[in-house]
Amino acid sequence: MFLTISSLLFFPGCTVSQMVIRGVVGQAVTLPCTYDVKNSRELHPVCWGRGSCPNSKCSNEILHTNGRQVTSQSSFRYNLRGTVVRGDVSLTIRNLNERDRGLYCCRIEIPGWFNDLKKTLNLQVDRGEWDLCDASFSLS
Predict the structure, then answer these.
(1) What angle do CA 70, 63, 39 make, to 5 degrees?
(2) Selecting from 2.40.10.10, 2.60.120.10, 3.10.180.10, 2.60.40.10, what CATH number does the domain 23-126 have?
(3) What is the pLDDT of residue 130?
(4) How would you classify residue 26: left for phi > 0, otherwise alpha for psi between -120 and 50, otherwise beta?
(5) What pLDDT does 37 receive?
(6) Does this model's pTM top 0.70?
(7) What is the mean pLDDT of the chain?
(8) Residue 83 Cα distances to 33, 43, 75, 95, angstroms
(9) In this structure, what DSSP letter does residue 38 have?
C-alpha cells in the first residue's frame, strides 16, 4: 500500500521523492542538483542520466564529472553552469525539444556501499505558444 501526497511517495520503510521541472521547447532549462562541499576533499564524481536512478552509476549517462570538471557529455546541449567545486552540479539543457521530456537522475558518487546521493527529476516540456493577437501589422 502507498499514499501519494504532493510529489512524495510513502512506502513502508522508505521515502522516495520526485521533483517536477517545467521547460519550454526551444528554451533552456536547469535541473537542480547540489550537495554540501566544505573542502576540496569532499568533492565527488557526479553523473547525470536519463531515467530513474539505478542501484549504481547512471543509466543512459548524458554527463559525468570527476568532482572538479565535466569529463564527458553526450551532447553539447548538456552542461553544468553552476560552480561544480562548490557542489552545484545542476544540469542545464539548451534548446529543449519534446524528446527531452521524462525522468533524469543526478547521482553524487560517495565512496562506500549505498552512500551515493540520488535525485530523480521529472522534466515536463511544454510547446511555446505564439499569441497572434499581440502581433501588429501596418500596410502602407
Answers:
(1) 45
(2) 2.60.40.10
(3) 55
(4) left
(5) 94
(6) yes
(7) 84
(8) 11, 12, 20, 22
(9) S
